[in-house]
Structure formats: C-alpha cells, structure tokens
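request received
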Amino acid sequence: MIAALLVPMVVHDTYIRHLFIIAFIYGVVAASWDVTLGYGGIFNFAHVSFFGIGVYATGLTAKLLGLDPWLAMLFGGVAASAAAVIVAVPVVRLQGVYVVLVTFAFSQLVLQLVISQSQVTGGTQGMVRVPTLWLPGYNFLRDYKFGYYYVALGLLVITTICLRWLVRSNFGLSIKALRDSEDYAVSRGIPIAWQRLKALVASAFFPGVAGGLYAVYLRVASPEIFDFSTSSLILSMVLVGGISSIYGPIVAAFLLTFLSEGLANINNFAEGRFMVVAAAMVIVLLFFPKGLASALPTHFAKKSPGKASAPATRLERV
Amino acid sequence: MTADTLSAILVSGIVLGSGYALMASGLSLVWTTLGIFNFAHGVLMTLGAYVAWTVSDSAGLNLGLAAGIAVTVAALIGVGILIERVIVRPFYSNRDILLITVMTTLAAMIFLQKGIQLLWGARLKQLQPLVAGNVRILNTTISAQETLVIVVAPLLLGALWLFLSRTRIGRGIRAVGQNPDAARLIGINVSQLFIVTFALSAVLAGLTGVLLGSVRLLTPEFGSDPLVKALIIVIFGGLGSLAGTIAAAYLMGLVEAALTFFIGIYWTPSMIFLMLIIVLLVRPQGLLGKVVR
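response:
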C-alpha cells in the first residue's frame, strides 16, 4: 500500500505510470466481477458491459450535457447499476446456461445500441475529446499523469475496502450460501431473487465508476470495450488470480496488464499478446483450477489456515 | 406492402437463413452430444474461409477452389480434434464443465482470431465465387453465388441428417446425445464419438465459411456475427433439437430481412437481442423446444 503511494515519486516515466493506472482500473473491474462470479456463483457475462456503460455514460454526460467530470464518473457507476437491474430481472429467474446466454445477449444488445446511435455515440468510430478531470489550480493534463495515478489508486483502494466489507457482511455470507447450497439457503429463508439482484447491482457500481475514470483519463469512448478480447482479458484476471478472493484478481490485473503491455511492445505483436493471455487462461484452468494463488508454497497458506481451508473456488450454482 | 417487397424479403431472408442454418446446426450438434457451447465455432468458419482463400486464390497458392475446399476440410478436422483434445476433454469429469468450456472456448476463439490477424493481416480478402453472374428468383435479382448458398445449405443439412439417422456412427452420436451413460453401457465408444462430433461440427463451420466467403468480405471478425446469431438460433429452436434449430435459422433469416426492411439496418440487431431476452424470459426452452436439459 505504502509502496503503491510512493511509486509516482520513484517512477517518472509517464508510460509506466500509464500502465499502473490501467492496471488499477482493470483491478477494479476484475475484483468486482468476482463478487457475482466467484462469491455469488452467478455466471454473469455482462460485467465488462457494465464497465463499457460506465465509459459511455460518463463520456456522454460530461461531453454533451457538460456535467462536471467528477460527477459524471459517479453517474457512470449509477448508470451501470441501473443496467444491472435490467440484467437482473431475467437472471434471477433463470438457471445454468441460460444465465450465460442472457447476460451475453445483454452485452451484445448494449454494443449494438452504441453502434447504431452513431450520431450520439460516434458509432464504430467512438467518441473523442471527453472532458478531463479538473481541480481548482491543478492541471491533470500537464502533470505527467501524476494526478490520475492517485485518483485511480484511490478508486482501487475504496473499491477493495467496499468489496471486502460486502463479501464479509451477512449479505456476502448469504450469497455464498446460495452458491453452495441453493435449496438449503432458500429453505433457511434467504430470498434468492432479491439477494442476486443486490449482488449484481452492487458489483456493477464499481466497474461503472472505473469506466468513467477510463473515459475521462483516455478521453475516448470506443465500442472496442465491448469486444470479446476485453472480456477475456478481464475474465482471465479473475481466473488467474483465483475466484472467491478479492485480492487475487487485483494482483492478476497487475501481472496481466504489465505482461500484455510488455508483449505489445515487441514488434508486430500487438495482437499476439491476446493470444498469450488466452493461452495463459486455458493453462491456468487446466493446471490450477483455483487460480495461481493456490499454487503458492504451502508455508504461505499455513499462516492463514482459515483462508486456505475455505471451500474457495466453486462455480456450480449458476 | 407490394408483392415485390414481399418477395425481396423472402429471398434475402432465405439467403440469410441458409447461412445461419449451416452455422447453427454445427453448434447444435456439439451442444446436443457433448453438452457444451462452443464459442470458437464462429472463428472456425473464419479459419475455413481463410484457408480456402490461401490455397485457391491467385495471390495465394493458386491451386483452384476444389483444392481449397479439400484442404479446408482436412485442416478443420485437425483443428476440431485439437480443440476437443486440449480444451474440452480435460474437463469432462468436472461438474462445472459447461461453464469452464464457455471460458476455454472463448479463449480459443480469441487465440484463433488474433492468430488469423497475425498470419493473414487485417487487409480485406474475398474468395472467388464458385459460380458467376446473377439469377432472378421471384422477381428479385441475387448473385448466382447466393443462389448456390440457398441450394447447398439444404443439401449439406440433408447429408448431415442422413449421416445421423442412417449410419452406425451417426446413430451412436445421437445415442450419446440422449444418454451418454446408457450409450457407454451398450458398448459405444463415447470419447471417440465426441471427437467425431467435434470434427464434423468444425467441418460444417469451415464449409459455411467457404460458401459465405465469396458473398461477404473476409476479416478476422468474419465469424463473430454468425456465431452470435447461431447462438440465438440454437436457443430459439430449443436446445437439443436439430430440426428445431434449422427451422429457427430460416425463421431468423426471414425476421432479420423483414426487420432490416422495415426499421433499418441499425436497429435490427438491437431488436433481435431484445427478442432473444424476451423469449428466454417467457419460454426458456425455446420457441420450438420441449425438453429442458
């Protein structure tokens, strides 16, 4: 944590700072996905579209309505949560593969809406010149990404604290109970539809805000966010880091962001990095189904026996 | 609506539907037999079209389209077997197989799509049409290649149906689809049939790519849109029913052609996804399906 605060003091290279900012943003998306995917066992395929909705909601309100970019970022979170309500209505009533398909169809629906409304969203070209963040007497554009670094770090820290609190609360326990034994949990009086709806809405807020930050930081909103590549990149962060652990996906977000950016710098390999990430995802699923965290030396696990023995990674109730 | 518009919608709907039927039947075959959704199905179609282009085009090996089709079939059998072996087989005994294979086949899709982009570049390509010229059907003019799609799709689907209902291997595949445990008990080599199914489905995707590769331009994302449509069709038709899938494919083609005509090309995809979500809410078993797996 302290190391993360000090990084910009040591690292003056704007590109490395940029990688940190992107890793923070992906970390938020990956960790919050884990609430529904890992803890809730809801096979929610729309999570990256919540991020994309945040990007576009912020971009549109900041650019077209002139909303203050800070407020627009928050609006991104609210918009993503509102979208999660729409997704949740069918999802809480369906089971198994149908959840995958509905959430998948939803993300395609959002993508098609973005592309078709080209006079507002810029269509396939995307939207450019999104207003940047702004503080009195401080310029976010000319500080070598110093300010954005701390905003992104702050967002990641707040997200992590909220998510930790969420999964450890009674609510978090109840969605885990629904995942592990739906019939028993329901018989003990846990309202399944209501808890799933809350899980989706809560977990959608953070990627929405992260999407907002992404829009004001990069100053563009492009439909590539809804692409399969983005989904599989972030999904691989969740899987590589180990599901049902908030920290795992964040660590994996760093590893994979730096790995994939490092590979992108190799000549003509910008596309190839997605191949490496895809292969890494399959290898992890084949050999470490509980994520790389489970491959750490055993003495590491002994320090926290409670965590190590927890029935962590199961995806069955979907 | 005049008779001419109606026939224009009918013809273009049938062209679309034929392509969808070929794609969706391969997807449906794997779903029925192995119980997984193969998200790499669309990119297999792309791969088929690119391989055929490389072998047949004058900018490639220039060996003619027959050689192109032969190499495509061989290559896709290989890739189909490889996918089954590497990313599906290891998870058979896993209770979460359906979800894990969603992730692994998605990874395979990204891997192949980006691989195609690296190997062939992003520049647009087009296959030589098998037949040249235009044909007039129902007062609507379409290219001869599109007519070929309309004719070949039912022939291939008919061949698939004959294979599944008349041959020993085909009946085995259906038996496995109905009850893998019982099939194993009566001495059917289930894991061998899984490989055959996967290879067959990959070949169907590849041939669809060859057929459509001369109607549309080839890009590394060539197969994404048909994949998404095929997924929808498999659900519309009812999971596990090949006849339902094919009927739904043609219905979908007609609906898409009609929507494109009435509300325009921009709103059509959104409307189709909205329809899918509504159908799933009201009839999760699909429009024509009866059994929920």
